[in-house]
Design goal:
The protein is mostly beta strands. Helices cover 6% and strands 40% of the residues.
Length: 607
């Protein structure tokens, strides 16, 4: 359904219209040039045999501004004939000019250089487009027809683009989609390119005529093939980065059930003219002026996560009911009437719809407004993985996997399925640590958190947990055989290895190369708060037993102090001394770790 746009337009009938045809206005030198059947004076009364009316000539009227703010103008009561070099005894017009007004393009009947009429095979006089150049005496000369004119079809209604190179026109040449189609040609290297059809999105099985391209790039035309209010309706299309948008009906009161055509607009797009044979006119075709009170809103639809423009997004204007689609730059132009609020709803498949209201109460006509509408593509984040035995590779069903967020949520626990797998759904803008455990195995946590902060695409993280079995310390075998290396025992009663920690000769301090294995120990203690750990230290056979016992104790104590320093825990210990046959001394300390704290070390002296 085509909605009324009476809030946008104020239409007036011009005072110089006659009872004949007056149509096809174009701007020229502070006035307008148009085609008319009026004033057919001369030695002969030239009447068109088909219509019974006079032939068309070009006329000019000056336009004086009486109120610039209100866009009020005064016209000549009796427009004068325009240029005897362009007017002939047959039809002349409509007409258009280059931007500098030094070149003219106009429609006239099929005449040769000697003003002889040419006809097609059926005896019909076709229309052609001609050009002329302005000489130093302000007279038109060098009149030539365009190279693709033909006696067998019509070429008419020229309109020059702002670039001065692209000419739009209407023609019923072969290869079109209907009656009259819209074409364009480009002037390059001194020649006009072969005409190119604007395609089926614009051209229909009916007639598309009277193209007019505004300096903004918007193309206006009339059509009886697109959905309209009656016969010829005025439509417009926007060119977005080389892609024509859908034709839009300009609506009432510009369009009526009658023929409405030949629209032109001033540079500011606030005032213009068009032609119509609507009821209430003076003659058959009359020229009307209109004020265009509109605020132009350029809407940008973009991805909120990536800030990239979204192409082919739908934008619905609830005031007009129009649905438009963004181009490759994510933009679309919407026109709003003054003193009104309208809501734009943007949508795109796989995105969440978003709406934004724009009001025009504080704007003047022709104001341009820029509106940005972000669309959020729901982001899905998850983490999944496998919990399995590190030695056998077998999945561990019924393992407990804990998820700890840093964004204020509660810890969540998941029990693995029969295949040993787990999966958590993650929130955005959050970091998560994970920990996995199973009865009879050491618990393990992630070294680094998994973060969804700043991610702009959906993602599923994968983290597998290989778990190692442990041996009950109460059922462990006796102390290991001392090998004679300068290191403490790596541990007793466990199923994984922490690399040996070496000391300098006759020293007890922790070397820098021992920090990594001790950090592993700290992580094990944190992951397994109920773990019983025994720390052992021994010396070689050099030195007395008494001295070696003290050295071993200091070395074991340095490990404990290092753990305390790193984790701020309280620890107490008693040495357990063993003297081997080779006179090596070992002092061991057993710690009970609960809730991430080393509470005590228990042990006893031995011979």
């Amino acid at each position: 359904m085509i909605k009324s746009r009476k809030d946008f337009y104020e239409v007036k009938k011009l005072p110089f219209n006659t009872t004949f045809d007056d149509f096809g206005p174009t701007f020229y030198k502070g006035g307008i040039v148009f085609s008319s059947e009026r004033d057919n004076t001369g030695p002969t009364n030239r009447i068109h045999e088909w219509t019974g009316y006079p032939f068309l000539d070009l006329f000019y009227t000056k336009v004086d501004t009486t109120d610039a703010e209100a866009l009020e103008f005064k016209y000549d009561k009796e427009p004068e004939k325009y240029s005897n070099r362009l007017n002939t005894k047959y039809h002349d017009g409509p007409i258009c000019y280059s931007r500098d007004e030094k070149k003219v393009f106009f429609t006239r009947n099929n005449l040769d250089e000697r003003n002889r009429v040419g006809k097609d095979d059926e005896g019909t006089i076709r229309l052609k487009v001609f050009t002329a150049d302005l000489d130093g005496d302000e007279k038109w000369q060098n009149i030539q027809g365009l190279p693709f004119n033909s006696d067998e079809y019509s070429v008419a209604h020229p309109s020059m683009d702002i670039d001065g190179k692209t000419l739009y026109f209407s023609s019923d040449m072969p290869g079109g989609f209907g009656g009259m189609d819209l074409y364009y040609t480009i002037y390059e290297d001194g020649t006009w390119s072969p005409p190119r059809n604007l395609g089926p999105r614009i051209n229909t099985e009916g007639h598309e005529v009277f193209p007019y391209v505004h300096s903004s790039g918007r193309l206006y035309f009339s059509s009886d093939g697109h959905v309209g209010l009656g016969m010829l309706d005025i439509h417009y299309i926007d060119n977005n980065n080389g892609v024509w948008g859908p034709p839009m009906n300009i609506g009432f009161p510009i369009n009526t059930p009658s023929d409405d055509f030949g629209l032109i607009l001033n540079e500011e797009e606030t005032f213009g003219y068009f032609s119509s044979n609507r009821e209430g006119g003076v003659g058959r075709d009359d020229i009307y002026s209109f004020k265009y009170s509109v605020v132009k809103v350029e809407v940008l639809v973009y991805d909120e996560n990536t800030n990239e423009p979204i192409e082919n997004a739908n934008v619905l204007d609830d005031c007009s009911g129009l649905e438009l689609y963004t181009g490759s730059n994510g933009r679309v132009m919407i026109e709003l009437p003054l003193n009104k609020c309208c809501t734009f709803t943007a949508s795109k498949e796989s995105y969440t719809n978003n709406a934004l209201e724009s009001c025009t109460h504080d704007y003047k006509a022709s104001t341009k407004v820029f509106v940005k509408i972000p669309l959020n593509q729901p982001l899905d984040f998850a983490i999944e993985g496998l919990v399995y035995d590190s030695e056998t590779g077998e999945p561990l069903a019924n393992s407990t996997v804990s998820l700890m967020p840093d964004c204020g949520g509660e810890q969540v626990e998941f029990e693995t399925d029969a295949s040993g797998r787990y999966r958590f759904i993650l929130d955005k803008s959050c970091c998560y640590s994970l920990k996995a455990g199973h009865e009879g195995y050491f618990a393990v946590s992630t070294d680094k958190p998994y973060c969804t902060k700043g991610l702009r695409k959906s993602q599923t993280f994968v983290h597998d947990f290989p778990l190692q079995r442990f041996v009950d310390p109460t059922n462990r075998p006796g102390p290991p055989e001392i090998t004679g290396e300068e290191s403490p025992c790596a541990g007793i009663g466990r199923s994984f290895v922490i690399e040996h920690i070496y000391y300098d000769f006759d020293k007890a301090y922790i070397r820098t190369d021992a920090e990594e294995p001790l950090s592993q120990l700290i992580k094990i203690l944190m992951d397994n708060p109920d773990l019983v750990v025994e720390i052992g230290s021994h010396t070689d056979a050099r030195g007395s037993n008494r001295y070696n016992i003290r050295l071993s104790a200091r070395r074991a104590e340095s490990v404990v102090k290092y753990l305390i320093k790193k984790k701020s825990t309280r620890i107490a210990y008693k040495p357990k001394v063993m003297v081997k046959r080779n006179r090596q001394m070992i002092v061991s300390m057993k710690s009970l770790v609960r809730k991430n704290n080393i509470n005590e070390i228990v042990g006893q002296n031995s011979e």
